[in-house]
Amino acid sequence: MDFGSFLSAPELKLKIVTYRDIFQNKALIEDRFGEEYIAKSALIKLDSVDLKNLSLKKGETVILKNSFGKVVVKAEASDSETPHRGIAYMPNSPWSNRLVSTETGGTGVPRFKEIEATVVSAKGEKITELEF
Amino acid sequence: MEKEYYVCTGCGLLCEDIETELEKRAISKVYTACRVGVAHMKENPGTAKFWVEGKNTDEATAIGKAAALLKAAKNPLIFGLDNSTNEAQKKAIELAKKLNATLDDSSSFSFGPLMAALLQKKFKTCSLDEVRDKADVSVFWGADPSDSHPRQLSKFAYFPRGKEKQRGWEEERTAIAIDIRKTHTAKICGNEFYQVPLGGDAEFMEALIAGLSGKLPKTSYKYPPKKLLELANLLKAAKFGVIFIGQDLLYSLETLAPLFRLMDTLNEKAKGDFFLIPLLEAYNMRGFNENLFEETGFVNRVKFEAGSVKHGPEYSVVESLKAKAVDAALIIGSDPLANLPYSIIKELLEIPLITIDPCETLTSKKAQVSIRSGVSGVEAGGSALRIDGVRVAFKPVFESKCPSDEEILFKIMEAF
Question: What's the pLDDT score for residue B146?
Answer without folding.
Answer: 97
